[in-house]
Amino acid sequence: MTQPSGHAAVFSGGSWGTAIAKVLGDAGTPVVVHARRAEIADSIATRHRNPAYWPDTELPPAVTATTDPVAALDGAQYLVLSIPAQSLRTSLAQWAPHIGPATTIVSLMKGVETGTHLRASQVIAEVTGLPAYRVAVLSGPNLAAEIMAGQPAAATIACIDEQAAERFQAACHTSYFRPYTSMDVIGCELGGAVKNVIALAVGIADGMGLGHNAAAVLITRGLAETTRLAVALGAHPATLAGLSGLGDLVATCSSPLSRNRTFGTYLGRGLTVTQAAAETRTTTEGVKSAEAILELARAHSVEMPITEVVTTVLQHKVTLAEAAAALLQRPPKPER
Ligand SMILES: NC(=O)c1ccc[n+]([C@@H]2O[C@H](COP(=O)([O-])OP(=O)(O)OC[C@H]3O[C@@H](n4cnc5c(N)ncnc54)[C@H](O)[C@@H]3O)[C@@H](O)[C@H]2O)c1
Ligand SMILES: O=P(O)(O)OC[C@H](O)CO
């Protein structure tokens, strides 16, 4: 298979991977999707459709696909990674030897690795040995279904090499997708990872029928604890008020399209974690990342009460009523 020159290799034939392939293709960037399943790769390559995730939406002609990771990476200007955060290390280790010297890696993943507490860009740097300036992240209010439908959205592309972020910005800027750049990788990534946990909390409250005030409290105080953690780890506070922070938090916590919010709603209605997982059967990053984020926060003496309560609910250590009470009955304090 001969690859188009300077293409983006999108490693994921899943929900967001396919959507970003469409965005890149619509922006005029040649794309090679790497899908694990032959029927997905074949269908994208020959019919420009992903039958498993987005059967009704046609992908641009600039998007093709393969199951061969080496072929997908050959000559790639970008390696765009969009697989579940907890599988990143193992999968990337297999692909890393085939990453070219001019390839920039772009992470779309919104999770923190269990055990190590590393953000996806840190895992990427560790596994590939690449310097941080060759690793960018893209994050924001990006519900894949809306983007596949061509509805307007924006995102933040963060990289310590601003010009690398600008190049990817140009590669994925379309009439419906407006990327901004940033050099705050830490803030951008943590905003994306923690909002999944807050969306679980909002979903739980929704499932319990606690009302819109409670949802607004969780979103607002969720942003406060996300910002505390991110700033403690070196992020700029303004990043958390931006698209990858507040923007993504609002979209995810408000939309029934969110898998994390939906998962929380199942828990709030009384389902167990196993039952909720069986209902959703998709990547729900907050479920796995919650404990890792809490451990990361504790290691830096950062208080994250909502994340803590969500973690105890996921571990079935408290009842839902006890979880709500644990938040409401915390000692009174100033708002900050
Ligand atoms: N779906 C969205 O709306 C959306 C939007 C923004 C960011 N994200 C983030 O993108 C990431 C991927 O989410 P998604 O929604 O596309 O998930 P998904 O489940 O739809 O797709 C995941 C893809 O990863 C592949 N995969 C699964 N396990 C793998 C493994 N062990 N090794 C290699 N590949 C594996 C699957 O085959 C699939 O192609 C997550 O971190 C998520 O938070 C998702
Ligand atoms: O469906 P979720 O909960 O994984 O959220 C999807 C995106 O991250 C929203 O920006």
TrEMBL record:
It comes from the Bacteria. Pathway: Membrane lipid metabolism; glycerophospholipid metabolism. NCBIfam families: PRK00094.1-2 (NF000940), PRK00094.1-4 (NF000942). Belongs to the NAD-dependent glycerol-3-phosphate dehydrogenase family. It catalyses: sn-glycerol 3-phosphate + NADP(+) = dihydroxyacetone phosphate + NADPH + H(+); sn-glycerol 3-phosphate + NAD(+) = dihydroxyacetone phosphate + NADH + H(+). GO terms for molecular function: glycerol-3-phosphate dehydrogenase [NAD(P)+] activity. Residues 184-323 form the Glycerol-3-phosphate dehydrogenase NAD-dependent C-terminal domain. PANTHER family: GLYCEROL-3-PHOSPHATE DEHYDROGENASE, GLYCEROL-3-PHOSPHATE DEHYDROGENASE [NAD(+)] 2, CHLOROPLASTIC. The keyword NAD applies. It is found in: Cytoplasm. This is Glycerol-3-phosphate dehydrogenase [NAD(P)+]. Its EC number is 1.1.1.94. NADPH binds at S15, W16, R36, R37, Y53, K110, A144, R259, E285. Catalyzes the reduction of the glycolytic intermediate dihydroxyacetone phosphate (DHAP) to sn-glycerol 3-phosphate (G3P), the key precursor for phospholipid synthesis. Residues 9-164 form the Glycerol-3-phosphate dehydrogenase NAD-dependent N-terminal domain. Keywords: Cytoplasm, Lipid biosynthesis, Lipid metabolism, NAD, NADP, Nucleotide-binding, Oxidoreductase, Phospholipid biosynthesis, Phospholipid metabolism. Sn-glycerol 3-phosphate binds at K110, G140, K195, D248, S258, R259, N260. Pfam families: NAD_Gly3P_dh_C, NAD_Gly3P_dh_N. The active site is at K195 (proton acceptor).
